[in-house]
Amino acid sequence: MRIFLLGATGKIGTVFLNMALAKGHPITAYVRSPEKLTIAENLTIIQGNLESIPQMSAAMRDHDVVVSCLGGNDNDQSNVIQKFTEVIVASIKESNVSKIVAFSTAGIHNEFSWVTNFILTLFYKHVINDHRLTTQVIMTSGLDYTLARPLSLTEGGL
Prior knowledge:
Elements: E1 3-6, H1 11-22, E2 27-31, E3 43-47, H2 53-60, E4 65-68, H3 80-95, E5 99-103, H4 114-139, E6 144-148
Parallel strand pairs: 1-2, 1-4, 2-3, 4-5, 5-6
Helix pairs in contact: 2-3, 3-4
């Protein structure tokens, strides 16, 4: 499966990239900082702009799936992930790729106890909102999608 990967230099993206390469999948990593990646077999690295639909859609043509491991909202009010996801969805539609897998965060649908939801909202209000809006963009896009919303990510094993 030819995978177009966004966020390959982040925590989730690095883990995903290594696992997919270990399974032999050809990966195109579309990144701002290509120097953060190591050249590997089955890995194509493209330095790209997350705000350019023409550039991104040209780079993602001939792929089977787009995987978004984007993060980066430091609890500000910018909705940066949502804005990038709107560009990603438009690029996917322009390039005729029909599938997207995106990593988000647990808690965006108030699925925890009221105490946990209150604490999450208190400390991560803008992050939660950005991820909630991002999933809405994907869910209403008409694309075939999978949304992964891990509860927590750790530096070690299980």
